[in-house]
Amino acid sequence: MAGLWECWKDGTTKIFTCCSITTEPNDVLRPFHDRMPVIVRPENFTEWLAAETSEKRLRELLKPYPASEMEAFPVSGHVSKVTNEGPKCLEPLAA
């Protein structure tokens, strides 16, 4: 996912901040929300992270991920607990 981070000082204290970048939803996510995270393709990771990448090119990367490469399906409430990790979070809810 695309994001930004910054480290700045408040007096002598270092403060680290970050945010996720969102965009309009694709057809898969539109029924659920009015925005979605920007998903950077692996082949664009270096470009996204490089300081010399132009602002114009970075803006071109801030687009919805192709709906044809995604799917949506119900999952259990297990995924709703922030401390839960692993494959169980991705298991489709049994019909």
From TrEMBL:
The organism's superkingdom is given as Bacteria
User: By its UniProt entry, which Gene3D superfamilies does this protein fall under?
Assistant: SOS response associated peptidase-like
Taking the record's annotation, the residue ranges forming a coiled coil are: none
GO process terms (BP)? protein-DNA covalent cross-linking repair; proteolysis
Query: According to the UniProt record, what class of enzyme is this?
Result: hydrolase
Q: What keyword terms does UniProt attach to this protein?
A: Covalent protein-DNA linkage, DNA damage, DNA-binding, Hydrolase, Lyase, Protease
Q: What is its EC number?
A: 3.4.-.-
Q: Name one GO molecular function term.
A: lyase activity
Q: Which Pfam families match?
A: SRAP
**InterPro entries in the record:** SRAP, SRAP-like
State the family it belongs to: Belongs to the SOS response-associated peptidase family.
Name of the protein described by the UniProt record: Abasic site processing protein
User: Per the UniProt entry, what species is this protein from, by scientific name?
Assistant: Limnoglobus roseus
